[in-house]
Amino acid sequence: MRYLSFVRTGVPGFGIMVDGGIVDLTRRAPGGARSLRDAIADGRGDEIAALARGRTPDFCLSDVTLLPSIPDPAKILCVGLNYETHRAETKRPDAKHPTIFTRFADTQVAHGQPIVKPPVSDALDFEGELAVIIGHGGRNIPPERAFDHVFGYACYNDATIRDWQRHTHQFTPGKNFSATGAFGPFIVTPDEVGDLREQTIETRLNGETMQSASLADLIFPIETLIAYCSAFTPLSPGDVILTGTPGGVGDRRDPPLYMKPGDVVEVEISGVGLLSNPIVAES
């Protein structure tokens, strides 16, 4: 199934795509949930999926404004240097453990919404990534049970202000400018995606391929990331883990290639979807 978050007539909601339209679950979900994160809490994902079966759409996709797939995650945990091609282009050493940093929920934008270039920098770079959305929370999750905790997958563009990322050894400033984390358009459940190792990820800038890789190329696979992250923090329903970006980022090209106002950037993951965003200057 494909889940989405949206605004309709000024009211935020969430639903499931059925026959090209949306089954609105905002007022049907158990527990009076008003967001997708609330709806999947306590392992209720199967319950809300059942609510959509056999229903005809309540309205069309064109009737809503999309929100980031999970607009209000409690945690966004980002993984750096998780494809060998990207590690090699950055000239960083091999690592025994995943590189983890955070992104704030209020930096996110939805599919079709602009990624905003701030006035303090011209070094706005693309990073196409697979997002893993947690459905069942837990602490110290063993790798062999990690996929039991996955609600679904989505496309993400972890756009980065490179010069601010390099101000110190901490990545946080460059990764948290307003309206730089694109997320969506949908969350696709694992049964529809199939074997992740057979899926590919591609980032395109103005139609030209910049990044292309197989998800089988992850240095630290998803089960390892879930186990590692849950060892230092409890994972909760709606939490998001960004699994890293392949080689080909604009910052490591010669000359560097950064996104600028008027550009369009796309992240496409087979079996998951296509995320597209224009680039605008901050007004």
Describe the model.
This protein has 283 residues and is mainly β. It has 2 domains: 2-66, no CATH class; 76-281, Fumarylacetoacetate hydrolase, domain 2, CATH 3.90.850. Helices cover 13% and strands 34% of the residues. It has 6 helices and 19 strands. It has helices at residues 36-39, 45-52, 84-90, 162-165, 190-193, 222-232, and strands at residues 2-8, 11-18, 21-24, 59-60, 65-66, 76-80, 99-102, 108-109, 115-117, 124-125, 128-134, 150-158, 160-161, 181-188, 200-205, 208-214, 240-242, 264-269, 273-281. The strands form 3 sheets. Strands 1, 2, 3, 4, 5, 6, 7, 8, 11, 12, 14 and 17 form a 12-stranded mixed beta sheet that branches. It has a 5-stranded mixed beta sheet with strand order 9-19-18-15-16, with no helix packed on it. A hairpin with a 2-residue loop joins strand 2 (11-18) and strand 3. The longest helix has 11 residues, at 222-232. It is globular. The chain starts with a strand and ends with a strand. The model has no long low-confidence stretch (mean pLDDT 95).
Q: What can be said about the biggest beta sheet?
A: 12 strands, mixed
CATH architecture of the largest domain: Alpha-Beta Complex
The number of helices is 6
CATH class of the largest domain: Alpha Beta
CATH topology of the largest domain: Fumarylacetoacetate hydrolase, domain 2
**What integer value in Å does the Rg equal?**
18 Å
Which consecutive residue ranges, at least 5 long each, have pLDDT under 50? none
* Overall number of structural domains: 2
**Mean pLDDT over the residues:** 95
Helix content percent band: 10-25%
The end-to-end span amounts to: 38 Å
* SS-based class: mainly beta
Compute the number of strand runs: 19
Beta-strand percentage range: 25-35%
